[in-house]
Write a structure and sequence with these properties.
Elements lengths: L34 H24 L2 H16 L11 H22 L21 H11 L5 H12 L4 H8 L3 H21 L13 H15 L3 H5 L2 E9 L3 E4 L1 H13 L4 E9 L2 E9 L10 E11 L2 E7 L12 E2 L3
Parallel strand pairs: 1-6
Antiparallel strand pairs: 1-2, 3-4, 3-7, 4-5, 5-6
Length: 333
Amino acid sequence: MAPHDPTRADPTPPPTVGERDPGHPAAPYRDPDTAQARFLIEIADLRPRLLRYCSRMLGSALDGEDVVQDTLAAAFFRLDTLDGSQALAPLLYRIAHNRCIDLLRRRRFQGEATTEDRIDDGSPEHDSIASGEAARALELLVTLLPPRERSCVVLKEVLELSLEEIAEITGSSTGSVKAALHRGREKLAALQRESAATPRVRALETDPEAVALLREYVDSFNRRDWEGLAELLQEDVRLDVVGVLEDGTRQVILDRYVVNYSRLDGAWRLTLGAVDGEVVLLCMRREGGDDSDDEERVAWPIRVRLEGGRVAQLRDYVLQHPLEGARQVEIDV
């Protein structure tokens, strides 16, 4: 039996949800009794686009999913600030944008190479990248742009928002947005013409000891050898099941986490893989069981942090869908 999602709403929304106000893409939240139901209805449509934006901004679908989680939590607690003239989408994008910028700045201060987040006040006219060029270049090269230009290009070319909407999300003027788009488009076109740039993704793990430990963890998990797996965990190991549990202890892992996995329907296994260049564990599932003709598919990723030759942290995305925002997923690396 799959783990229960305690955050899942009642599938039948209250009959008082009502209709959306004409002229607004999201319903206002006047009635606090129906605010949660309204919120869940709106984010069902908005979430995939929000994940795509965050993933492209950060160059990682998993980091993007983490920011989406933080964004939805923050927005939920701001529902009472929305009146009938406001929509949910701009609030979500503003929160997500600011969190992405904050994370990119932290990366810079921690030593990861990023360019300065500066934007001019000018508003020069610009030529759009041809649609075919944009489709190919954005996926591969957008993470090479400075954060502000990256944000404007993704919001315009990927999510197709207006200049006014982008200005509201980024806290800029429409002139600044035009300038950022002009610079970003020029850089993307140049990079594509040169055919010399590759996306900046984290390199696959090459430490033989780390790879051996991850493979040992995978083998123990696939054999359902929980005693052997316990020997690979630090005493103070921590577990996050994204959207459900934070900071679970070693005892939680051994008493509840692995038990939930052993009860999963269908045939499943873990394998070593990579998402957007980051080494992770991937859960592979065949819904109908080992003897079925169902195709084995990647179900969800698990991040693992190692310290001192042991597993120090597990971050499991079993109830989320971060791979929908991934540029590249590698299996059995």
